[in-house]
Design a protein that fits this description.
By secondary structure, the chain is α+β, with helices and mostly antiparallel strands. It is built from 31 helices and 20 strands.
Length: 874
């Protein structure tokens, strides 16, 4: 039974509605229950769209924010109340003797040394993990940091204590611990076996540290293990109250321009900067996805506008006051919005702890990270508020009929199904607004790449606003075709059904347009980003047919090979043509922890050719300049932040002091979001004050295969060595895998959008078919067989979806260029050119085919509707 019939019946139940300005709770609930019984499918469809939008925003926000929040908890647990630090600029650290100088400074309350390194550790059954290892002593406990709660067993010489998370990852159990289990540490390409002294659970180090990939060793033992006797990575300092500034000045004098003086939480600032580009990309995708989800919900509610308008007209004709009608509509919107938002919050929380959990393996070489999930209450409130606001906005459209200038029976005066007409003047106004939105999006795309979110929203709105005009054009063309071909009687009947339900048909077309826009724009942009990263990985690995490095170095070659004579042994192999040393490390530059790459002349030819901005000429000039000294090539984001360009200068604070270099070229960020600096191997050795290589590049002789050389090099490394020998293709696959994991949220969001598009279209089509049952029954009564009705429904669906989906696909292809520009210019990632992929066409075909297949059963059922339904009272 329809709402039109429901309304008068309902008014006989609640007492004297027309005399009351506001309705009581029981009356409001009564009306909403009647609505749910009559239009449960439409309410469910709208609720799914709202819940999807809320879930996407919340899940992405929680997953991204959890990394910094949980890592801050880990860092604070390690450093305790320290508020300053003296930190090394290179992997070689600095003399532990400076601890006495620091302790002697006026205003220093406590100070403690720390030696730290990210290492690959192998545990039981060959299980491996990258673990942050901290070397400490009792002074850190006095500082009230990590050592405060460590058991005495953690200080046993030549042992290592594993956090609970590290022990799980390595397969080390409590039973194995009692059996004196040991693990193997890869240090500079040499395997070292160390006994496990303890498993550190929450009772020993607290919840945050127990959940982090962390291990602890006595400071002296770790120094010996690394071959860095008397060296530390940093000294943590707690300044007395009011003495922060003089202590910082004293630390600067001790540093003498060769060490960094910073706040104790500098890592968090740099981690935020490292996560920012990937976070910007994920946030852009999530917000656009959420907006599309809300638009889908908006369109779903528009499907019910005709019935809502009829119900409002019936209430007005029976004398119900405008205020009571507005209260009823708002109450129903709040019920739907709150229920859908609650479901969205639950789903978003689940997604954030499972599929949306951000992979940070690509950052593990530079940061000590925690994978715990932290849910800020503000994110939940914001997501829920957005869901309720969109619901109320969409539901308020029928309230336009409450204007005093509109007759109470206006919906019954129009042609077709009551409440479904759209005036030509309204269509023209919407088309004009669409042009304005399109111009705005184009202007932002051309001049402000960082405004991609606004441009994408403008494009989505332009798509929806243009649909009435596009739909009218499609119907006019179909009408002309049906008149020219008299045999197309099915098309003529379908046109009559579509025109009788214009608003409902437009809502369905808009659903298709929004669904295709999001799927193609975001899916295409993700494909372009992954293609760009794949191109970088190929070029970076191609500079060395065979790589020799520390195992698990994430493809970045920032460690230090401690295998004397390895390069000379490899060079003597019969099939080896040459061996060159590669250098690399991480360096603090402002708030960035940049990746420094140093190679011999010609050693970066392929990666520079692929990643230098400005084309082949700029890449050739960069290679020639880097063959000399005093030049660097830097990521465009670094140069922009430092207000310098090609030919300008960049000053780096290195372990031997400040050095200025001229900029030879600008590059992408090579998928390392804080940015990259290329320099010559000679400049690196002078600035870092040491020549230990990070990796070796092996060039085979003519006629020798990379696979054969790989096997010979692995044999030449000898027993006890734990170096990783990989071909260029293996190195590329490792980089591809790692960087793709770091952008895994984009894949999840893109996939969810396609699923949401198919679901929304299928649900909207099923709802539309359900609402057409009475009209189909009338056709059955006139003698139309079920097969003919199915053809009519197919033509109607094709007309509605054809106009919407093609419009959305075209707008989505334009949106792909907008998002590509954002990723390229704002985040600095390498992005392939749009247009070379068949992704838009694939998504269009997939979504349409899946949606039509999903409604085959409802269409078949509706085509067999009983003719008697046409004779039933409304």
């Amino acid at each position: 039974m329809s709402e039109r019939a429901d309304a008068p019946a309902a008014m006989s139940e609640p007492r004297a509605l027309h005399t009351r300005r506001l309705l009581g709770p029981r009356t409001l609930i009564y009306f909403y229950r009647r609505r749910l019984r009559a239009h449960a499918t439409q309410e469910l469809l709208a609720g799914v769209g709202i819940a999807a939008g809320v879930a996407l925003v919340l899940a992405a926000g929680i997953a991204q924010g959890s990394i910094t929040s949980s890592t801050r908890q880990v860092l604070r647990a390690v450093i305790g109340p320290a508020n300053l630090q003296l930190r090394a600029r290179g992997p070689q650290g600095f003399s532990e003797a400076k601890l006495h100088e620091v302790e002697a400074l006026p205003g220093v309350k406590q100070a403690a040394p720390l030696l730290e390194r990210n290492m690959r550790i192998e545990g039981a059954a060959g299980r491996r993990a990258s673990v942050y290892v901290a070397g400490t002593d009792v002074s850190l406990g006095v500082l009230d940091g990590l050592g405060r709660t460590l058991p005495l067993s953690a200080y046993q010489p030549h042992t290592i204590a594993l956090s609970a998370a590290s022990a799980r990852a390595l397969g080390v159990s409590a039973a194995a611990l009692r059996a004196h289990a040991s693990v193997t540490l890869a240090v500079g390409g040499v395997a070292r076996s160390v006994r496990v002294s303890a498993i550190l659970g929450e009772e020993a180090v607290g919840a945050s540290l127990a959940q982090a990939r962390l291990a602890v060793m006595p400071l002296a033992s770790m120094q010996q293990l690394l071959g860095e006797a008397g060296r530390v990575s940093r000294i943590l300092v707690q300044a007395a109250p009011g003495k922060l500034a003089p202590v910082r000045a004293g630390l600067a004098r001790i540093a003498a321009g060769k060490l960094n003086v910073a706040g104790a939480e500098e890592d968090i600032t740099q981690l935020k900067e490292a996560l920012r580009p990937a976070g910007q990309a994920s946030a852009l995708f999530a917000i656009i996805g959420a907006l599309l989800g809300f638009l889908l919900a908006f369109n779903a509610i528009l499907l019910t506008v005709p019935e809502r308008r009829q119900a409002i007209a019936d209430l007005r004709l029976s004398g119900t006051r405008r205020s009571a009608i507005a209260q009823l509509v708002i109450f129903q919107a709040l019920c739907l919005g709150l229920a859908a938002s609650a479901v969205g919050i639950a789903v978003g929380e689940l997604l954030s702890r499972s599929v949306f959990q951000q992979s940070t393996g690509y950052l593990a070489a530079a940061f000590a990270l925690s994978g715990a999930t932290v849910t800020p209450p503000g994110a939940i409130a914001l997501a829920a508020l957005g869901g309720v606001a969109v619901t109320c906005l969409a539901s308020s459209v029928p309230l336009l009929d409450l204007r005093r200038s509109r007759p109470a029976d206006l919906v019954y005066q129009a042609h077709g199904v009551p409440g479904n007409t759209l005036a030509p003047r309204t269509r023209r106004l919407l088309a004009g607004a669409s042009v304005v939105m399109l111009v705005l999006a184009s202007a932002l795309y051309a001049s402000v790449p960082s405004a991609a979110l606004v441009a994408s929203v403008a494009l989505a709105l332009a798509t929806v606003l243009a649909l009435p005009a596009v739909f009218a054009g499609v119907l006019a063309a179909a009408h002309a075709l049906s008149e020219r071909r008299g045999t197309l009687s099915t098309l003529a009947v379908a046109l009559g059904g579509v025109r009788a339900t214009t608003v409902r048909s437009l809502a369905l077309a808009a659903t298709g347009a929004v669904a295709l826009f999001g799927s193609i724009a975001l899916g295409g942009a993700r494909s372009d980003l992954l293609a760009g990263i794949h191109s970088f990985a190929h070029a970076y690995a191609a500079d060395a047919p065979v790589w020799v490095s520390e195992p698990g170095d994430n493809g970045q070659a920032t460690g230090r090979l401690q295998t004397p004579g390895l390069g000379a042994r490899i060079a003597r192999l019969h099939g080896v043509g040459s061996v060159s040393e590669l250098h690399g490390s991480f360096l603090t530059l402002g708030q960035r922890r940049v990746w420094v790459i140093a190679r011999a002349p010609g050693g970066a030819r392929h990666v520079l050719a692929a990643q230098t901005l400005g084309g082949p000429g700029a890449a050739a000039r960069a290679e020639a300049r880097l063959a000399g000294s005093g030049w660097v090539a830097v990521s465009d984001q670094i140069a922009s932040e430092r207000h310098t360009r090609v030919g300008g200068t960049l000053t780096l604070q290195t372990p031997t002091g400040a050095h200025s270099y001229r900029i030879a070229a600008l590059t992408t960020n090579l998928a390392w979001s804080p940015g990259v600096i290329f320099m010559s191997a000679g400049d690196y050795q002078r600035a870092w004050g040491e020549g230990t290589p990070s990796a070796l590049a092996v060039q085979p002789r003519a006629g020798s295969s990379a696979q054969r050389i790989r096997s010979e090099v692995a044999a030449a490394a000898g027993a006890g060595s734990d170096v990783e020998v990989a071909t260029a293709s293996e190195r590329q696959a490792s980089i591809d895998r790692l960087t793709s994991e770091g952008l895994s949220q984009l894949a999840i969001i893109s996939t969810l959008l396609v699923i949401m598009a198919i679901t929304a279209l299928a649900a909207a089509l099923a709802s539309s078919i359900s609402q057409r049952r009475r009209a189909l029954a009338a056709l059955r009564l006139s003698g139309a067989p079920p097969a003919r009705l199915r053809r009519i429904l197919l033509v109607e669906g094709s007309l509605m979806l054809g106009a919407g989906c093609v419009t959305g696909a075209l707008a989505g292809f334009y949106g792909q260029f907008v998002i590509d520009s954002y990723l390229r210019n704002v985040t600095g990632f390498p992005v392939a050119s749009a247009g070379a992929s068949l992704r838009p066409l694939e998504v269009l075909v997939l979504v349409l085919a899946a949606a039509l297949a999903a409604v085959a059963l409802p269409a078949w059922s509706a085509s067999r509707v009983s003719p008697a339904l046409a004779l039933a009272e409304e």
